[in-house]
Amino acid sequence: MNPKLFELATRHAVLQARIAEQRRQLARHAVPLEAALAKGDVVLDGVDWLKQHPAAVGVAAAAVAVVRPKRAWRWARQGVFLWRGWQAVKSRLAGGG
C-alpha cells in the first residue's frame, strides 16, 4: 500500500474513534436533559388539550368566580395534592420507582 494512503487511512481511523468517543460523551451528558424535555412535552400536551377544550377553561374560570376565593384556593391545593398522588401511583405502576 502507498505510504501516503496508509497514513491517511490511519488518520481517518483515529478521527473516527475520536468522533465515536465524543458522541458517547454527548449522549452521557444529554441524559439529564431528556427528563426536563420530557416534562416540557407533557406541559405542551396539556396546553394543546386546553386549546382543544376551551369550555373546560371557561368552566374553571366560572367556578372560581362563583366560589369564594378562599374555597377556590383550598380546591386548588387539594387538586395539586391529588395530582401528585396520581403521578406517584402511575410512576410506581409503570415500574419507575
Number of helices: 3
Task: Kindly report how far apart the N and C termini lie.
Answer: 58 Å
Secondary-structure content class: mainly alpha
Mean pLDDT over the full residue set? 86
For the biggest sheet, the summary is: none
Number of E-state strands:
0
Strand content: under 5%
Specify the helix fraction band.
over 70%
Question: What's the helix-strand series?
Answer: HHH
Radius of gyration based on Cα positions: 26 Å
In terms of per-residue confidence, which ranges show pLDDT below 50 for 5 or more consecutive residues?
none
Can you summarize this structure?
The protein has 97 residues and is an all-alpha fold. It is built from three helices and no strands. The N and C termini lie far apart (58 Å).
Any overview of this molecule?
- By secondary structure, this protein is mainly alpha-helical.
- 91% of the residues lie in helices and 0% in strands.
- The chain contains 3 helices and no strands.
- The protein has helices at 3-52, 54-66, 69-93.
- The radius of gyration is 26 Å and the shape is elongated.
- It starts with a helix and ends with a helix.
- The mean pLDDT is 86.
